[in-house]
Every structure is written in C-alpha cells, then in structure tokens.
Task: structure prediction
Amino acid sequence: MFKNIFKKFIFALSTFFMSAQVANAALSFPNINIGMQQANTPQDFSNGIQILIWLTILTLAPSIIIMTTAFVRIVIVLALTRQALGAGSLPPNQVLISLALILTFFVMAPTINKINTTALQPYMNNQITQQRALDLGLKPVRAFMFAQTDEKQLALFIKMAKIDKPKNTDDVPTYILIPSFIVSELNTAFKIGFVIFLPFLVIDIVISSVLVSMGMMFLPPTTIALPFKLIMFVMVDGWYLIIKSLVEGFAAAS
Result:
C-alpha cells in the first residue's frame, strides 16, 4: 500500500513539474485562511470541539505510537548496550533512534498489516463506518500489547483504577492496558540490559585488578578496558545477537 502511494506521489510530482515547465507559467499557491466564528447552533459548537479534539490527538500521536509499540524496549536495550560498551556517544543518538524505529516497524509489520486489512481498507472502500474502523484497528494493537504485558502489572493498574476484575481481555479498558504495557516493557528492557552488562562488567573487574597489581592505580581502567570490550563485542557479533534476541522475544510472546 505504502509503495503504491509513494509511486502515485512521485508520478503526480513529476507531472506537476513537467506541466509547469511546458507552460512556462508562474506557480500559484493556494491561500489558506484560518479563522474563528461564533457558533450559532449546537451543531457548530460540536464540530468545533471535534476539530479541537482531533488536533490534540494529532499532536500526541507520536508519543502514543511510541508508547504502544515495540519502540520503548528496543531503544532502551540499544542505549544500555552503548552504555555497557563505554564508548561514550558512539553510536550517536540519531543512529540508535533510527535503528530502533526501523526495528519497531519490522516487529510491528504483522500488526500494521492486520490494521490495514481489517480496518483501513474497508473504511477507505466505504464498507464500514469510522467508529467501526477505529474499533477494528484497535484490536490488533491491543492483542500485541496483551502479549507483552505482565499480568502482575496489569493487576496493579486494575487495582489502582478500582474497577471490577475483568472476565477476559476484552473487558480490560485501553487506558489500563497502555500503562501496564509500558511498565512491563521497561521491566523487560532493564532485565535484558542487566544480562548485557554482565560480560562487560567482568572485563572491567579483570582490567582493574591487573592495573592495581601492576601499581598503575592512577590509570583509568575504562580507557584500557574499552579496546577489549570492543574486540569481544565484534568477535561474538554482538549487534546480531542483540537484534536477534529482541525480535525473537517479541515473536515468541505474540
């Protein structure tokens, strides 16, 4: 779908510039006017409130997408890996975030395909209503979050919300599922980070012991340990192992 949209965009853009060059005419841009008028009827007031709500949702959309996908766990694990290596700001934040986004799209691809098949395409073809499309599109996302959410965290938020115990997953409100999912992802990410830190910690301890035994107490152990960490990380193909573990962890829980 995205490939077809991209092709149509390139075709329209090419047609636009070719026609402009042939006509040799000045380009004209549309004039956009945004204003506020008095709401004379309840319907006008309701439409204005709906527009305000949609603008608010669009503003919060990046945060909502980040917090309901695999991005949280992936970016934290990558950041902890960089910190365990002790390489400072390498890889840079832009590289880590870009890699985390790419891996997030890879992990979320089945969920996105389900949303496109069950909700977006029927809505675009006028087969279902907007509310029905939203309900159908939310189901794959909830299924993904439920697969990664710890029951302990879910029970905690249900208890704090002071609601009746749900009989099944369909009875769990989304506003309870989202924070439960986020806390579960943070917990899982730090567990993975602890495992990643262990071998690098052993190297730091060994290097520090060797430097102390040689009387080089004023030489920073991190400076000496960094090359050994890097060569070990390269020899075991660390990025391959970490990315494989992350992706397979999501696949196993789904």
Summary: The first helix runs from residue 2 to 23. Residues 5-29 have pLDDT under 50 and may be disordered. The CA atoms of residues 102 and 130 lie 29 Å apart. DSSP finds nine helices and no strands in the chain.
